[in-house]
Amino acid sequence: MQTIQLSNGVQMPILGYGVFLVPPQEAERCVSDALQSGYRLIDTAQAYYNEEGVGAAIAKSGIKREDIFLVTKVWISNAGEQNAAKSIDESLRKLQTDYVDLLLIHQAYNDVFGSWRAMEAAYKAGKARAIGVSNFQAARFYDFAHYVDTKPMVNQMQCNVLAQQNGLMPEMDAFGTKMMAWGPLGGQGAEGIVKNPVLTEIGAQYSKTAAQVALRWLTQRGIVAIPKSSHKERMAQNFEIFDFELTDTDMQAIAALNQQDTGFINFADPQRVRYLIETYG
User: Fold this and answer.
1) What does the pLDDT look like over 126-144, one tens digit per residue?
2) Range in 23-27, 98-102, 125-129, 198-202 with the lowest mean pLDDT
3) Catalytic residue among 48, 99, 206, 275
């Protein structure tokens, strides 16, 4: 598996398996299938309510813990230094592990600076090998990264061929922050990737699907991708992207597909913020 190096030297797999919207009762099976298919990066979150299933799958896999890169996220309702610290320990209990490889703030709301202090403490204590954020769009990311002592090592965003986040990349680069792509094959407004004619045509040159081309485009740019599927055959197919390389012409043709650079969700929309805070804050 190819890796990228985070700003603190930690090596992170460039392709992983995400469990967003995987029901709790299905999480153990899905993660077990993903691990058997070769995935070693598993992405979950407190708000997914499936950390127990993820932990059970890893514990039963027979794979050494140090060979798995495990990611989870602190949710809005657990924001603040004391609350976040308690929630981190609870996540570790559910995941049946002493540490996670990457710990993220899930959303840019509530007391994110308090949460970050708790995460910095967890990082220093060895409970997390790296820390970062999720869904921090450019202005919010800059404001946050500018003021914290430990700079975010990762920002997990909706990033795919239709939402390329080109405007955010320079802001992240300035702090040494790596991009991690949720929704790399669509979802949340970014539809049509797996049937896109440009991707299909390019894929035909390599006997690959449009989805495989879309994932290869991300990873070839150094972006970590975490596709999600509940079908083992599709998991395996998504994993088979390292036996070909896109040309510069291919990369440029795909870059022209960008539709909504910042993603298809406006995390600064007052109605969305109000809903999240009133529901979970």
Assistant:
1) 999 999 999 999 999 999 9
2) 23-27
3) 48
Domain CATH number, residue 169: 3.20.20.100
Helix (H) / strand (E) containing 112: helix 112-124
Is 48 an active-site residue? yes
Which residue segment(s) compose the domain that 220 sits in?
Answer: 3-280
Q: What Å distances lie between residue 156 and 94, 167, 169, 184, 262, CA to CA?
A: 22, 15, 12, 11, 12
Count of structural domains within the chain:
1
Torsions phi, psi of 46, nearest 5? -60, -40
Token pair in block for residue 88: 């981190």
Q: Which residues pair with 224 in a beta bridge?
A: 180
0.85 exceeded by pTM:
yes
Residue linked to tokens 């495989």? 212
Q: What span, in angstroms and rounded, lies between the C-alpha atoms of 244 and 237?
A: 13
